Amino acid sequence: MIDALHNGFLSLLGPMLGTLAWTLFKIVLIILPVFGAVAYLTLAERKVIGYMQIRIGPNRVGPYGLLQPIADGVKLLLKEIISPSAASTGLFFFAPIMVLAPALVGWAVIPFAPGLVLADVNAGLLYVMAITSLGVYGIIVAGWASNSKYAFLGALRASAQVISYELAMGFALVGVLMVSSSLNLSDIVNQQGHGHFGGSFLSWNFIPLFPLFLVYLISGVAETNRAPFDVAEGESEIVAGHMIEYSGMSFALFFLGEYANMWLIGAMTSIMFLGGWLSPFPASIPVLGAPSIFWLLAKMSFVMFLFLWFRATFPRYRYDQLMRLGWKVFIPVTLIWIVVVAAWMQTDYSLWK
Amino acid sequence: MTLTTVIFYIFAAILIVSALRVITAKNPVHAALSLVLSFFTGAVLWMLIEAEFLAISLVLVYVGAVMVLFLFVVMMLDINFEELRKGFWGFFPVAAIVATIMAAEMVLILLAKGNGLESFTTVAPLPEGVSNIKQLGIPIYTDYLLAFELAAVLLLVAIIAAISLTLRRRKNTKYINPADQIAVKRNDRLRIVKMQAEVEVPEAPAAADDKPAA
């Protein structure tokens, strides 16, 4: 059916426009569910934290509050967009787009199931790293263009934090690409499907690379400026950080970008350490053992639940300790584990042959 | 005209416009952001000729790290740009001559016969399934290992030198060692004093006035 649709596009519009339209169609097929997931992650966040604090959470709009994200979206759309008089207007409205765009562009190389990927490029892992490093521009530009001290301080904090944790994240990825000897995300998942434990969850990367898994997960929380690493928008200190001057939809775009980034980190964690679309059961079990997109979605949702759980549990880090954790704890841990894995791969006990 | 050609011309136009903006923008932050855009567009052009590793490294290193720090500096410096721009027309003749000579040299070398540029006309596309990164990695770690390691050592020395040049111990710093903080025991901070629950109050004189003390 997919081939028929593809050929339909090509015969209707010719080879050039047909390819363009077909690619756009595939992009929409990925972006729309991402937006849906983002909207319902905000509801899940409020519900999960609510139950963790023995409250009910939103329950007024629709059954069990299920229409709450739509109500929120409509509210934000209808609000007035305010531009501070001393702001650099063009950049001020460009900044939220610069936060959201990289969070969406990263999805281009994420494989959802075998063959189900927009661009199956060889350098997928590097591509995701490069694209996520662009998100920091939106934050810096927002802080500068707002022409406000709080916004600028928040932007400086956020970007320093993002750059620091990106290093630890990059080193964690080096470990993954060493054991899978590929930068292609589909190959990384496939490599986790075989080994001594033959395709069950015991052959996934998170067991031999456990320190890197932990570092990646925690750095992911810090990358997305989520609690307990949300010093960039620490309410008690600098109100809302770089977002302080934004209102209505321009504020909502920052929010969308943050949650889309969270899902992206969830997808990357699932693909690199939790076996992607592979089933946790051995392939001998009939239905449960088959690889499918639902396993990937379940793993991503689990990682998202961890993010919400962290937020409900931990108090905010102090800024100097946050920097110490990134530079003096995570980077040495990853460096040591990369050397350990490299040595391990040279011995007869190597799991990755 | 294929889709790739269209994409090439679009991005080439963006690259030229943004490169011009770098030198014409009045605001230094706008200039720095234009530089970011031109780096990014340059990376896209490299990607079109299948140099994806170089393209992604350009984005990762220059756009993702170097330019962020550059922006930091530009945003936080308090420079009077009117002052800097004052001597513009004074320097213009010299700058114009230098620019003209550079442009003329480039045109001459590109137009010259027998400069060997003809062999660069087309890039043979890599066969399906061959990774550009692997092709790059194998010579780096086999044929050119020594040069690569030397470059790495040189960078390491530069890092250590930069850090040691800027590192200074400040006397008034309020740094607290986190290990000491964690190692603190209750008895270091808290002393529990046994007191009687009630204290005998000496007989107070009859209340003269009912105003509060403070």
UniProtKB/TrEMBL annotation, chain A:
High-level lineage: Bacteria, Pseudomonadati, Pseudomonadota, Betaproteobacteria, Neisseriales
TM ranges: 20-43, 91-113, 125-146, 167-185, 197-218, 251-273, 293-313, 325-345
NCBIfam families in the cross-refs: PRK06076.1-2 (NF004741)
Protein function: NDH-1 shuttles electrons from NADH, via FMN and iron-sulfur (Fe-S) centers, to quinones in the respiratory chain. The immediate electron acceptor for the enzyme in this species is believed to be ubiquinone. Couples the redox reaction to proton translocation (for every two electrons transferred, four hydrogen ions are translocated across the cytoplasmic membrane), and thus conserves the redox energy in a proton gradient. This subunit may bind ubiquinone.
Subcellular location field: Cell membrane; Membrane
EC code(s) of this entry: 7.1.1.-
Reactions mediated catalytically: a quinone + NADH + 5 H(+)(in) = a quinol + NAD(+) + 4 H(+)(out)
Claim: Cell membrane is one of the keywords in the record: yes
Membrane topology type: Multi-pass membrane protein
The keyword Secreted is assigned to this record: no
Subunit structure as annotated in this protein's UniProt entry: NDH-1 is composed of 14 different subunits. Subunits NuoA, H, J, K, L, M, N constitute the membrane sector of the complex.
Keywords tagged on the record: Cell membrane, Membrane, NAD, Quinone, Translocase, Transmembrane, Transmembrane helix, Ubiquinone
Family: Belongs to the complex I subunit 1 family.
Provenance organism: Chitinimonas prasina
Highest taxon, organism lineage: Bacteria
Name recorded for this polypeptide: NADH-quinone oxidoreductase subunit H
InterPro entries: NADH_UbQ_OxRdtase_su1/FPO, NADH_UbQ_OxRdtase_su1_CS
Gene: nuoH
UniProtKB/TrEMBL annotation, chain B:
Catalytic reaction list: a quinone + NADH + 5 H(+)(in) = a quinol + NAD(+) + 4 H(+)(out)
Subcellular location: Cell membrane
Record InterPro entries: NADH_UbQ/plastoQ_OxRdtase_su6, Nuo/plastoQ_OxRdtase_6_NuoJ
Domain of life: Bacteria
Membrane protein topology class: Multi-pass membrane protein
Coarse class of the protein's main subcellular location: membrane
Record field: transmembrane: 6-24, 31-49, 55-77, 89-112, 144-167
EC number(s) given by UniProt: 7.1.1.-
Keywords for the protein's UniProt record, in alphabetical order: Cell membrane, Membrane, NAD, Oxidoreductase, Quinone, Transmembrane, Transmembrane helix
Family matches, as Pfam families: Oxidored_q3 (PF00499)
GO MF term (any one): NADH dehydrogenase (quinone) (non-electrogenic) activity
Keyword Membrane on entry: yes
Family, similarity comment: Belongs to the complex I subunit 6 family.
Role: NDH-1 shuttles electrons from NADH, via FMN and iron-sulfur (Fe-S) centers, to quinones in the respiratory chain. Couples the redox reaction to proton translocation (for every two electrons transferred, four hydrogen ions are translocated across the cytoplasmic membrane), and thus conserves the redox energy in a proton gradient.
Protein name (Swiss-Prot/TrEMBL): NADH-quinone oxidoreductase subunit J
